[in-house]
Write a structure and sequence with these properties.
alpha+beta; four-stranded antiparallel sheet; elongated
């Protein structure tokens, strides 16, 4: 990588994101580390808050939630990293992470990952990119708190659908695992309030519920970027 490319955020995102990191950790060409592929059932816990754990995980398939004292603060899906925020080997986790559905992951030793990244010439950029994404997510959530509950609810539905669901020409379909109870927990509202908002938005033609799956009107979602 050239010196100037080190200052291009798009190049950094492309070359030092989660997929390139997984490729680096699985590559045993010059620095081999312990790795293991694991499979979790729904509601299985990867690690607990306030407890030290020695691993990071990269999700191969499935979906996990991260929570603190029972309140969901994040979701993690395919190619996303879990456990890297608390990178020191004896550092306790700030979150409890569990599988929301059947989930396959690659597990790596935190200390060995740190050693490999420090051994690699540009390894620190993987850590930089991860923390930049983590901080951007926190800033977005903080800005989201300034919006009214209805706007926050619809925006979160749209974002979760875009990231983890399916898009067609006219619709954004959330995975069925995103129930009103789970979304309400994530937003800090009750399940009954989430159900009320769904009914209200359905009556306004902004979304529909089909076989327990929430479907967002894509045209509405495209005009809802509150961070534009």
């Amino acid at each position: 990588m050239s010196y100037m490319e080190l200052f291009d955020k798009d190049i950094i995102s492309q070359k030092f994101g989660n997929k390139p990191l997984l490729g680096l950790l699985l590559d045993d060409t010059y620095y081999e580390i312990d790795k293991k592929q694991l499979f979790f059932k729904k509601n299985d816990t990867l690690f607990h808050e306030d407890e030290a754990h020695e691993y990071i995980y990269i999700i191969e398939s499935g979906l996990c939630e991260g929570s603190r004292q029972g309140h969901i603060t994040q979701f993690s899906g395919k190619d996303e990293i879990v456990g890297m925020e608390n990178m020191l080997e004896n550092e306790v986790s700030s979150l409890t992470v569990k599988a929301l559905e059947k989930t396959a992951v690659w597990r790596f030793s935190k200390s060995q990952v740190m050693s490999k990244l420090m051994y690699t010439q540009e390894g620190f950029l993987f850590l930089y990119q991860h923390m930049r994404t983590f901080n951007n997510d926190l800033l977005q959530k903080e800005a989201l708190l300034l919006e009214d509950t209805k706007s926050r609810f619809l925006f979160v539905l749209s974002q979760l659908g875009k990231i983890y669901g399916e898009e067609s020409q006219d619709q954004i379909r959330l995975p069925k695992i995103f129930t009103k109870k789970i979304i309400g927990n994530y937003l800090g509202i009750t399940a009954s309030h989430a159900s009320y908002l769904c009914r209200q938005l359905e009556s306004e033609g902004m979304l529909e519920t089909n076989m327990n799956q929430i479907v967002v009107n894509k045209e509405v979602a495209m005009n809802l970027d509150i961070f534009a």
